[in-house]
Automatic annotation (TrEMBL):
Name of the featured protein: Nicotinate-nucleotide--dimethylbenzimidazole phosphoribosyltransferase
Enzyme Commission number(s) from the entry: 2.4.2.21
Recorded metabolic or biological pathway in which this protein acts: Nucleoside biosynthesis; alpha-ribazole biosynthesis; alpha-ribazole from 5,6-dimethylbenzimidazole: step 1/2
Keyword Aminoacyl-tRNA synthetase: no
Biological role stated in the UniProt entry: Catalyzes the synthesis of alpha-ribazole-5'-phosphate from nicotinate mononucleotide (NAMN) and 5,6-dimethylbenzimidazole (DMB).
GO molecular function: nicotinate-nucleotide-dimethylbenzimidazole phosphoribosyltransferase activity
Alphabetical list of Pfam families matching this protein: DBI_PRT (PF02277)
CDD domains: DMB-PRT_CobT
Length: 347
């Protein structure tokens, strides 16, 4: 359903030349140069400018949360959404700090917060089925979620946004995310089930067992990204995956947050490998499996702060670096402009 045009590699030499002609040793701005290159390839060599950046928080509930896989129950998802609306969460503080607009999308929490008109209604249900007992959702819901994400991204695209950041909220979603990762990469849950909100060793064992159970139950159907989402996914993970593909189709860059968002990225890449050029991985979280996932995606995260929060918090924290990349590319003097003797690569 999405049509992603690969980035125009013909621009690479021109962009690299511009970066190398800045008054600095070749490559001295490290990963900022990589980001500037990515911006140039996606937006055009002469159009490196972040426009109306948007943080999107995708929220949903998970049936498996009833089985003791988190330190809190599903009611905390709605409570945190209320907190987002009131401006009291970590993501509110960090978005405010970097001047980032934030939108909360209800993809299917148990009870909608009907008195909060600012929350976008993108509901696919009232929480998923418990993945160790039944399918999370139907294939129809997956497709519907992709279509809703497409509409959401189109609205922001129309608004002039060329860069989105994706975060999530949903108690139990690290269970779903690790089940997806295990299914896609064909690895053991032991390698990707982690402590989420901070569960103890005993609960971790139980979580691992339930994820194993989910994978066994759905074994024969875990054949493609859509079925994997239907079997063990989450409503917010579906819409994050769709949003990444929809954004790439519109030449928008996507800042990926932590483990759960990276699992959505894994699915998006599996659906269309061209999406990878549009993804910026903001940080490596503490969640078990994130490092392996990032290396599988060939991603070098910008930050490694020991975060294990989600909400888009790591993505928001990376914004000063994204601005730095765009600004050095646009505003730094070249050797000619500054009358500085040009440096040559010493090999
Ligand atoms: C108060 C609170 C705020 C949060 N903000 C994000 N998460 C994070 O924790 C959840 C995933 O962990 P698990 O799979 O262990 O439930 C997600 O909602 C994620 O965004 C939070 C969790 C809590 C408790
Ligand atoms: O890495 C994440 O996104 C994460 C880790 C723990 C809890 N919630 C989210």
């Amino acid at each position: 359903m999405f049509k992603i045009t690969p980035v125009d590699r013909a621009q690479q030499t021109q962009i690299q030349h511009r970066i190398d002609n800045k008054t600095k040793p070749i490559g001295a701005l490290g990963q900022l140069e990589t980001i500037a290159m990515q911006m140039g390839l996606v937006w055009g060599a002469d159009q490196v400018q972040i426009n109306r950046p948007q943080m999107l928080i995708f929220a949903a509930d998970h049936g498996i949360a009833n089985s003791g896989v988190s330190v809190v129950g599903s009611e905390v998802t709605a409570q945190m959404l209320q907190n987002f609306v009131q401006g009291g969460a970590a993501i509110n503080v960090f978005c405010k700090q970097v001047g980032l607009d934030l939108e909360v999308i209800d993809c299917g929490i148990i009870q909608p917060l009907s008195n909060e008109p600012s929350i976008i209604n993108s509901r696919l249900g009232g929480g998923t089925g418990a993945i160790h007992k039944r399918a999370a959702m139907t294939l129809g819901a997956v497709k519907q979620g992709f279509a809703m994400a497409d509409d959401l991204i189109e609205r922001h695209h129309q608004n002039g946004t060329n860069l989105i950041a994706l975060g999530e909220m949903g108690i139990g979603n690290t269970s779903s995310a690790s089940a997806i990762m295990a299914a896609v990469l064909d690895i053991s849950p032991a390698d990707c089930v982690g402590r989420g909100t901070g569960i103890n060793a005993q609960t971790l064992k139980r979580k691992q067992m339930l994820v194993e159970q989910a994978l066994l139950l759905h074994h024969s159907e875990l054949t493609d990204p859509y079925s994997i989402l239907a079997c063990v996914g989450g409503f917010e993970i579906v819409q994050m995956t769709g949003a990444m593909l929809a954004a790439a189709q519109r030449n928008m860059l996507v800042v990926v947050d932590g483990f759960i968002a990276s699992v959505a990225a894994l699915l998006a890449v599996k659906i269309d490998a061209n999406v990878r050029d549009f993804l910026i991985f903001s940080h490596q979280s503490e969640e078990k499996g994130h490092q392996l996932l990032l290396s599988h995606l060939g991603a070098v995260p910008l930050l490694n702060l020991g975060l294990r929060l989600g909400e888009g918090s790591g993505a928001a924290l990376a914004f000063p670096l994204l601005y730095a990349a765009a600004n050095f590319y646009n505003d730094m003097a070249s050797f000619e402009e500054a009358n500085v003797e040009s440096v040559l690569l010493d090999d």
